[in-house]
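Sequence, please.
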């Protein structure tokens, strides 16, 4: 294991932690999975561009709330071990922060764990109250998660 001895950085192979595979070829073998991914990509683009006409009405108060300061899309956060996580959407307010994750499949237990992890990391970074939202587009279901 080769690594420069840098004070304060965790041990480990940083190149391995920050590299990622950009293409999962398995998605092309499953037509239904591929179509859901494509639909998700299109919905992400619409939300980022401000085209909210196809967004379920019950999601609009979350995606486009009043009194927000700024929105960030595909924001990466790094934990103390160098692991990188990418949030779908961060909405900044004066005293708090919302982390929003878009889902296009069935509800899974891992979804809640994922958003709870984002909340934990963002609380450490931002020093603000952080709330999480899971938006399931196919079911038109919104779940609010507090730490």
């Amino acid at each position: 294991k080769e690594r420069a001895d840098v004070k304060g950085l965790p041990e480990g192979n940083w190149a391995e932690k920050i590299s990622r595979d950009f293409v999962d070829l398995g998605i092309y073998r499953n037509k239904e999975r591929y179509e859901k991914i494509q639909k998700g990509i299109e919905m992400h683009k619409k939300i980022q561009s401000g085209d909210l006409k196809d967004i379920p009405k019950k999601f609009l108060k979350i995606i486009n709330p009043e009194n927000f300061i700024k929105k960030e899309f595909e924001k990466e956060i790094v934990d103390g071990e160098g692991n990188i996580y990418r949030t779908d959407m961060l909405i900044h307010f004066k005293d708090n922060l919302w982390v929003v994750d878009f889902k296009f499949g069935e509800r899974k237990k891992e979804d809640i764990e994922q958003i709870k992890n984002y909340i934990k990391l963002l609380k450490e970074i931002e020093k603000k109250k952080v709330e999480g939202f899971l938006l399931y587009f196919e079911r038109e279901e919104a779940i609010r998660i507090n730490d």
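The CA atoms of residues 123 and 130 lie 6 Å apart.
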